[in-house]
Amino acid sequence: MARPPNPAPLSFLWALLLFIAAGCAHRPVNAPLASYRPTEGYYFHTHPRPDNSPETLFLLAFSGGGTRAAALSYGVLEELRRTQILMNGRPRRLLDEVDAISAVSGGSFTAAAYGLYGDRTFEIFPEAFLKRDVQKVLVWKTLNPFRWPALFSSDWGRSDMAAAYYDRILFTNATFADFEARPGPFILINATDINSGARFSFTQLRFDFLCSDLSSYPISRACAASSAVPGALSPITLNNYAGNCGFTPPPWILDSTDLPARVRLLARELRQPLDRTNHPYLHLVDGGVSDNLGLRELLDDATIYRYTPAFRSRIDITQLKRVIIISANAYSDPERKWDLDESPPGSIATAVAAAGHTLNRVSFETLELLKQTVEDLKSRAGNQSELQFYPVMINFTNFKDLKDRRFYLNLPTTFVLPSPDVDKLVEAGSLLLRQNEDYLRLLADMGGSLPPSPKTGGL
Questions:
Q1: What is the maximal distance between C-alpha atoms in the chain?
Q2: What's the half-sphere exposure (Cβ side, CA atoms, 13 Å) at 9?
Q3: Among 239, 282, 285, 420, which one is least packed by beta carbons within 10 Å?
Q4: DSSP string covering 174-233
Q5: pTM of the shown model
């Protein structure tokens, strides 16, 4: 009688085939731009924002900080959605007046979800992302031996794997063309060019320097780049096609000799990709490396406003009566008692603390730069007496109760938090706005008032 075949060789063959197939993964390549079209694409100056008042410039900035930042910024959006103001004599949600959202790392997921889904965000985002154990899934995918050939290849890495996962759970194959087609705030997802340390924003304006078409680029990959913590996740790579689409940079970028120092720095950073021979690729990592608040891109745009006709065509600063910036800063400051022990902390703990201290100091300098930028804006507007500025800066140190403050400051920077902690963070976004003096002044000046509190908490 014939002996049945031994299944072991077949199982081994199957495993071998899967192992080989996993090693065939390649990163999606950003598409070249056939020809430069300054009126087509994802630009701030062409993006539709229906009924937004030309007298108000309203900007949101969402910081990095993993799920902690994503939940805090989501709470800010919820509070703005509940809040009614009067615009030209008619009621309007304060959220609908937002012109742009600039975000980094964890905050990028909230901003991108709102840019893509609008009000549907409040139905799907908590379960799809905030309360999902994203970190565990990414760790298990990394530990899966069938993924190792791809993960250790030169053309596909941990962030490419993460982007595919973000696409499956939240973005469902959406690209920047979907952002472009949806009226509402302009979404700025920020990363860092690890070669130069320069900030990189996913807008067609920046892709023009690469002669690349942003419209077909996946939103999930932009968020993966923005949250690609160096060491833990791999860079996201872009191909540089500079010189092949007819794009010519503005004169101030090519010759910035006589311009202010900050403008010269921006010009140098923007010029670098134009040398495609020496820079055929860009490797992008976490936006927090260059700016963990999400504010720098907004400040730089204000700095180069006078040199950028497209910005001037969209924002007439002589008409502005109010500039609103709400910064949701998920700053953390975990308690450490290292000074009580003669033995120093370990190398990993030291590296994490050093990075955190650097980010916090840079963030402080960014807030100081914000004040200078606003004063410059006022002087150029020519109507200093009429132009009102509302700098609504919220972070966990604003909590008056020490117990509350320590709870939020001790939350880790991860992509998983217990569901009750997520709820408290969302609530914090609302509570911190409601006790901010500049925010209350804004509501009074715009004919608004605080809506009923969704939950009482201790401030």
A1: 101
A2: 3
A3: 420
A4: -BHHHHHHS-SPEEEEEEEETTT--EEE-SHHHHHHTTEEGGGSBHHHHHHHHT--BTTB
A5: 0.88
Residues 6 or more apart in contact with residue 168 via CB below 8 angstroms: none
Going by C-alpha positions, the residue among 127, 44, 62, 74 that lies closest to residue 331 is: 62
Geometric angle at alpha carbon 167, from 163 and 170, rounded to 5°: 125
In whole angstroms, give the CA distance from residue 240 to residue 254: 18
Q: What residues form DSSP beta bridges with 322? A: 56, 388
Q: What would the pLDDT profile of 13-67 be if each residue is shown by its tens digit?
A: 444 444 444 445 678 999 999 999 988 999 998 898 888 888 899 999 999 999 9
Tokens of 372: 């200078």
Which residue is listed with tokens 């990394």? 142
At 291, list the tokens: 């700016």
Here the contacts of 405-411 (C-beta below 8 Å, separation 24 or greater) are: 406/335, 409/331, 409/332, 409/333, 409/334, 409/335, 410/332, 410/334, 410/335, 411/68, 411/332
Contacts of 50 (CB under 8 A, 6+ apart): 183
Residue 299's φ and ψ, nearest 5 degrees, are -70, -40
- Structural tokens at position 10: 């077949």
Q: Reduced to 3 DSSP states, what percent helix, strand and coil does the chain have, rounded to the nearest 5?
A: 50, 15, 35
